[in-house]
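Limitations
The structure tokens in this dataset are predictions for the assembled complex, not deposited experimental models. Users should treat interface geometry with appropriate caution, especially where small molecules or nucleic acid strands are included. An illustrative entry is reproduced here so readers can see what is and is not provided.
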Amino acid sequence: MSLSPDDVKRIARLARIETSDAEAQATQAQLNTIFDLIATMQAVDTRGIAPMAHAQEVFQRLRDDAVTETDRHAAFQAIAPAVENGLYLVPKVIE
Amino acid sequence: MSDTSLSTLAAQLAAKQVSSRELAQTYLDRIAALNPSINAFITVDPEKTLLEAAAADALIAAGQAGPLTGVPIAHKDIFCTDGWLTTCGSKMLHNFVAPYDAHVIQRFKAAGMPSLGKTNMDEFAMGSSNETSYYGAVKNPWDTARVPGGSSGGAAACVAARMAPAATGTDTGGSIRQPAAFTGITGLKPTYGLVSRYGMIAFASSLDQAGPMAPSAEDCALLLNVMTGFDPNDSTSLERDKEDYTRDLGKPLTGLRVGLPREFFAEGLNNEVAAAVDAAVEELKKLGATTVEISLANSKLAIPVYYVLAPAEASSNLSRFDGVRYGYRAPDYASLDDMYCKTRAQGFGAEVKRRILIGAYVLSHGYYDAYYLQAQKIRRLIADDFNEAFKVCDVILGPTAPGTAFKLGEKSDDPVEMYLNDLYTIPANLAGLPGMSLPCGFDSQGLPIGLQLVGNYFSEAKMLNVAHQYQRATDWHTRQPEALQ
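Predicted assembly:
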């Protein structure tokens, strides 16, 4: 398989990364060499093999349903690009 | 510098021959002198370091010191550190001062070990040369025209140049072991789940693991004692009894079965690296080990599998960098969506963007089964190969990297060429097994060569002793770059 510049722009759109036509061109060539490398695994017969998602067979722990966090919103919001009245400011999305 | 082993430094502190402040100052002076040419640190803050050292001195004076109290350490800039800048090597976090400490940092603080600063790294740990850092490439202390490896390149370089007695690193596909090999130090990636990932900026969560980097295996064992332990804040942290990783140091290697995977000694391996690794095998035999040939037949697929799984996880993990809650935000934008797109276009470097795009693609509708699911199935085959191998051997041995440190810029235009550097290290990450690199010689250009050991799950103490016995019989790990003495 081979990605076209339009494919690259579509993926970049999915990933929310602004990409110019020139960047898409340059990226396309590099991604295609990487996908050529990845393609080597397609020849392997994996019928009947269970996918391995994780290195250890772990399961999610459950904790008691109790409040454990303290309110640190001031510290967390002190490092935000734009904050007002305890709220994160972003461009208007609803008219 | 003279003997800077952690046990020696700790003994000097305990005997009050030196204070933690004096020790920290010695290293800060060395950083001030050498860092301009090596670029191993992104952030150094002598005032904070000396305050932490003074607190350690108070603990020592009060008789409340632990084994490493007062010994300073450098931290990879991937760990969130309360009050210190944490950039992860990216413009995206150029102004990010974390409001909390990573679990690893909490443990080193609790052990009374002052921080010497935050070390340079490939952006978001994506790279094998440290050239993708927004803060400039790190130079290899053995030859400043060469890379130190990556992604923990700053950590490796600062230890190799003795700007710090030890450092923390992280390893997703070889990021502790390959730079350790390139700079002539010892580094260990523990069994997945032994060290908490809480506050360690995520790249590929099913593979990421933090570990120690220092001149010797004994140092690494002492550091591992500090770093490991259950943490409820990491859902993959393992609940196990506390281990003493120094407990096996000193045991003879008689009867040790060393597995040599034929795939790790095949085409593509540099001759000088192969010769040094062969010599190390002979040394281990002299110490009582026997060898057995094994096969890791699916390991050749580790790179393609990794470059599906790691970018897939990364594309999801890095979606949090949107310019809303912390870090970089683009200065001009027309809408919320435009703000996301411009912030991410400007905040991420080329390699990070490439991997996010690969991840977004392999997870997208219609491609998931062909790429992501297929990669997960082959991951199982790779892990199964190791399980088979450990039925006939105690530890697997091979080269850490196919060659020695390459020149800056030599591979930076060809991602695939760069990726092939991690051929021997990635399989252990996919299986979740512990792996380590230790120095085993030099090539004809005077560049360090790394030997890799991969052990079965939770066999760190045994691996560390194999390395320790080898280091008692050899002196590669004590060598330092002459130009920096």
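Some entries come with short summary sentences. For this one: Chain A touches chain B through 51 residues (CB under 8 Å).
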